[in-house]
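Help needed: design a sequence for this.
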C-alpha cells in the first residue's frame, strides 16, 4: 500500500509526523506500506520551522509542489496542475489529506478525478457554518469528494451524518495533534524570547492575531489592543506579528509598557508560549485545539468556530471583539472562575496508531 500524505500548511506537518512514525514502525516490522509526504508550498515556507522540525523529528517533504502564489485561485490552479503531474509519475492507493488549506483542497480534486485512488480526510466534518469563509468552502469541497472520513471531534462526526455520510465511512479516531502535544510538551525547546523578555509562567498573555479582518483593519486592531491593555492588569502581552499586522500596528503607533510586539514565531515556539501563558487570545482557529490539550484558558475572538468541542467541552470561550464580552472573560479569568473544562474524547496521544489501523483494514 502506498499513501500520499498531503500538507498544505506548516501546522499540518505536526499532525502528519506521528502518523508517519507509525508507518515507519510498520515498515520496520516488515509490513508492505510506503508513503510520500507532499507539501503544496515552498521550502522557504518551512525553513523558519527547521529547529522545531529537527527537535520533534518531523520529516521533510519528499515532494514539494513549490507553489508561492498569493492569490487563492492561482494557488489552487497551480496545485491542480502540479499534483496531477505527480500522479502521472506514480499513483498511491490512498491520498490522505490533512486540514483544509487551498492547496489541500486542490489536491483532493485531482485525486477525485484519478481512477483507483481513495481519499481520506483527517479533520473532516468541521463546520463554522460561515459560507463566506474561505476555510469553510475548502472544508466542504474536500468532504464532497472524500471516501473515508476521519473527524477529529464528535461534533464533526455529527455534521457528516447530518450531511448524509453513512456511518460505515466515518472513522472517529481522535485529534492527531494530541500525539505531538502529549508526547513533547514537557520537552519543548524554550524560545529565545523567553529570557529576552524575562517571562514568567502564567504572568503574561499570548495574543495571536492572523485574520485579515483584524490585522488589516486599523479600527478593529486599535479597539482590540486598547481593550486587552486595559484589562490585562499590567501583565505582559506578547504579540507575534505577521506582515499585515506589522503594517497596521506601525500605522497605529500604540505603545504600552507591558505590550511586547515580537517577530512571527514558529509553531514550536508558539506552542511553548501558549503552554505557559495565563491565557491565549486568538482570532483564528489556530491554538484552539492545542490550548484545550494544554488545559490553558483560550479566548477566541471570533463569532463562530469550526471546533465547538473546544468550548462545549474544553477550555475555550467564544468572546468575539465586543468590549462587554471581553471584560466578562477577563473578570472570570482573574477571579479564578474560568470554566472547568476537560480534554475531548480520544484526544489522548494515541491517534496515529488508530489511523493506521483503519488504513490497513481498508487497503
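Sure. Designed sequence:
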Amino acid at each position: 500500500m502506498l499513501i500520499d500524505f498531503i500538507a498544505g500548511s506548516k501546522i499540518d506537518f505536526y499532525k502528519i509526523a506521528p502518523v508517519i512514525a507509525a508507518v515507519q514502525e510498520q515498515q520496520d516490522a516488515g509490513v508492505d506500506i510506503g508513503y510520500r509526504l507532499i507539501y503544496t508550498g515552498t521550502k522557504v515556507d518551512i525553513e523558519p520551522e527547521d529547529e522545531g522540525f529537527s527537535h520533534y523529528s518531523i520529516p521533510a517533504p519528499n515532494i514539494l509542489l513549490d507553489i508561492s502564489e498569493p492569490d487563492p485561485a492561482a494557488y489552487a490552479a497551480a496545485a491542480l496542475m502540479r499534483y496531477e503531474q505527480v500522479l502521472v509519475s506514480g499513483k498511491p492507493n490512498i491520498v490522505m489529506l490533512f486540514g483544509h488549506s487551498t492547496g489541500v483542497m486542490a489536491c483532493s480534486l485531482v485525486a477525485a478525478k484519478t481512477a483507483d485512488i481513495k481519499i481520506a480526510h483527517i479533520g473532516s466534518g468541521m463546520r463554522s457554518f460561515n459560507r463566506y469563509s474561505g476555510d469553510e468552502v475548502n472544508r466542504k469541497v474536500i468532504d464532497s469528494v472524500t471516501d473515508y472520513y476521519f473527524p477529529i471531534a464528535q461534533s464533526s462526526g455529527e455534521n457528516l451524518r447530518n450531511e448524509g455520510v453513512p456511518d460505515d465511512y466515518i472513522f472517529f479516531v481522535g485529534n492527531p495533534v494530541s500525539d505531538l502535544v502529549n508526547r513533547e510538551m514537557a520537552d519543548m525547546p524554550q524560545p529565545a524570547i523567553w529570557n529576552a523578555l524575562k517571562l514568567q509562567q502564567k504572568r503574561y498573555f499570548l495574543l495571536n492575531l492572523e485574520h485579515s479582518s483584524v490585522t488589516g483593519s486599523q479600527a478593529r486592531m486599535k479597539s482590540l489592543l486598547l481593550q486587552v491593555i486595559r484589562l490585562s492588569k499590567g501583565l505582559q502581552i506578547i504579540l507575534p506579528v505577521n506582515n499585515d499586522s506589522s503594517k497596521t500596528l506601525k500605522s497605529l503607533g500604540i505603545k504600552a509598557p507591558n505590550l511586547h510586539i515580537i517577530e512571527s514565531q514558529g509553531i514550536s515556539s508558539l506552542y511553548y508560549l501558549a503552554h505557559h501563558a495565563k491565557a491565549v487570545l486568538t482570532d483564528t482557529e489556530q491554538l484552539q485545539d492545542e490550548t484545550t490539550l494544554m488545559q490553558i484558558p483560550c479566548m477566541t475572538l471570533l463569532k463562530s468556530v469550526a471546533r465547538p468541542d473546544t468550548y462545549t467541552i474544553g477550555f475555550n470561550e467564544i468572546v468575539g471583539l465586543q468590549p462587554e464580552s471581553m471584560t466578562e472573560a477577563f473578570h472570570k479569568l482573574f477571579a479564578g472562575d474560568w470554566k472547568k473544562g476537560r480534554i475531548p474524547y480520544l484526544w489522548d496521544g494515541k491517534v496515529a496508531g488508530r489511523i493506521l489501523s483503519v488504513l490497513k483494514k481498508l487497503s
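DSSP finds 17 helices and twelve strands in the chain.
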